[in-house]
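Example complex used in Figure S2.
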Amino acid sequence: MDFIIPQLLTGLAGASSLFLVAVGLTIIFGVTRIVNFSHGSLMMLGAYIGWSILTRLPRDPEWFVLGIAATVLCTAAIGVVLEVVVLRRVYRAPELFQLLATFGVVLILQDVTLWIWGPVELPLPRPRWLRGFVTILDSRFPVYDLVLIAVGPAVLGILWLVMNRTRWGTLVRAATLDREMVAALGVDQRLLFTSVFALGAGLAGLGGALSLPNASANLQIDLSVITDAFVVVVVGGLGSLAGAFVASLLIGILQAFGIVLVPQSTLVLVFLVMAVVLVFRPNGLMGRPQAEAREATLAAPVVRPAPRVLRILGAVALLLAVAAPFLAGDYYLTVLTDGAVALLFATSLHFMMGPGGMASFGHAAWFGIGAYAAGLMSQWLGAPMPLALLAAPLAAGIVAALFGWFVARLSGVYLSMLTLAFAQIVWAVSFQWVEVTGGDNGLLGLWPPGWARDPAVYYWITLALSVGVAMLLRRMLYSPYGYALRAARDSAVRAQSIGLDVQRLRIVALVVAGAAAGLSGALFSYAKGGVFPTYISIPHSVEALLMVLLGGLQTVAGPIVGALVYTGLADILVRSTDLWRLVLGAVIVLLVVAFPEGVAGAARRLWLRGREA
Amino acid sequence: MSVLVVRGLHKSFGGVEAVGDVSFAVAPGEMLALIGPNGAGKSTCFNMVGGQLPPDSGSVRLDGREITGLSPRAISGHGVGRTFQITATFGSMTVRENVQMALLAHHREIWRFWRPAAARHVAAAEALLAQVGLEAQAGRAAGVLAYGDLKRLELAIALGNAPRLLLMDEPTAGMAPAERVALMQLTRRIASGRGVAVLFTEHDMDVVFDVSDRILVLNRGRLIAEGDGAAIRANPAVREIYLGTGATSGGH
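Predicted assembly (865 residues):
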């Protein structure tokens, strides 16, 4: 049991860095109600900027502190720019569009960082005073970790003083409780929001710079940190400083001991803790139920049958798609196959998110479960393709039913976070359970049988299944069940009072969406010849969100348009420029600012202009 | 035979008694108003009957059947329709579809996945809309209706499951005075026509005295008076809490 004390101290040091990032995220969310996906990118920038500053300064402790302070100011300034240029324009947009905009920022910052600092990891050469050790209970312990352990509580203390002893802090706390009331009292919201964002960004920068001596500045920081920070913020309770602190201790220590005790499943452990906390405390350890926003949120528009023109357009597009193998070359055939898969993937997400009102940040989980179900069936049982394609939606649907039983009573951001956590668990399993899933190498050699091997034939199969299932989902939305699902989303109290079982309606929506996404995953695997953990990555989940939101959440045709636009856009970008993330990110931000209701939504508004009272 | 019989209802929140020993009954076709100053326990009472809150003790019986502590959904299944203080309708549907939704739920046709819902119960929905005077608005989005029309729509939705009892929480809150009386007289006509018992809370005394058959007065969780309009007007205890002495809620 010698490892207990050192691991505990390591855990506490980790908890401190985690806290610095998470506390900024939680303050920003509390005041602006924006889930800032780009918060991890700010920490990454902090690490890179810190590296650039610290390597140019003398290597004494006082210069180190000064360099860290300069880094914090730089990231805070970047935060101000982000807030003024991007976020300020989307405060009135729906929650998910804000998230999308911040993800656009993630992509932009990734390429900017790559462009400025290059792809190589940048470690900070440690000065002598940073390399010291102290002996605690017979084990040697790095001095720097002790410094880190002290930083967390120190920052918490300072923040507590700021929040409780200054006028600005009082405003922040008031805005966290009731933003509209603070605005009604005549407080300049712009200044408040900008300063809050600057504070959060500065704290992220501090976290990034302080992590340098133990780690290095690298391009993976952003997404890995943001997931940990999300977990901490959600476990602690959105908007709660003390909650963020307690949760970072919990998660930090859990990670430190997890690495020693169950090295195979640390990731699973962390997300399981989050899932358990949310099941028993749906608002996190120290969070309160969120006050309903009083600002008039746009009521979802009435869903009407597609106009004739759109039906004709759809039929023409389908005819073209069927004829494509005769018109397009092999390369475009693979792009079109991807497009057909994306169409089903996006439609399945739309089903639960639009009419179901359950936003999923982890939709790739179902895609991946389907893909692995098909891959494992074929690899271990030698199942033929049709059987594997059948197993995929079954497996995904069954897991979705189990998952839905836990989460159907959660709502809003917490539900989304739990879907993200679940996707990370699935990813961790696929990545760490090497004996069964092949780990990072994936399952290889998953090709269609001889009769379907011709790319054109496989494309037709994919097209038929994707479009067929997508049409089925669409039909369901117009059926009594689809109406009831929409009713439960529009007004849960009204739905219950006319006798609808809201939970069961939502679980069924999850099962349907999960099964359809599972099928799309299996189709994709056979097209690519294998199954890999990247199918379940966060960027893949975000891709699905992008397609749905680009197309427009409240139109039935939206996800289809979104999937095709996105696949086309991504393909053109990847082939034409190295900076495709930058361009894609910029396009996303611009689209969100210009069309907060999505491309198809905007088209419908133009179409309906003057036609509906 | 009463539709709703409430016996000895109790509810406390953290040691504060919100409702204590409340008993009453409502007959078919009867309009029963539940009035009292703010904080008297009207909403708590209401929510215990509607299933939003479980009572600490006491019983709620509907047509002789025990429904105490059931979920709102189950209570709806036993034939209770409800309207809310803040209107709750389905904003992404048309006015007609809102009523069709209630009819689909009433006929237990929710778990059907194939035939389009828009074609179901159209005539019945339009008949209900005609009853509340909304037939001209049937094709419009529920979200764009004027407030008074939304209240009528809620009434039509509540009637969709052919209720034996209608629970209306502050049905006229936020409406213009002339509209208030019109809405409640409409409710009254429907109630006596269909033999539906109506239990409602209301702040507007003109409405209360105009349309109710009987009035219950709550103060500090206790039933302090019961009777028709004239009896309540003459009741000294009621006059005291409404005309205000040190004993009213305003005296805190």
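Residues 4-220 of chain A form one domain. Chain A touches chain B through 34 residues (CB under 8 Å).
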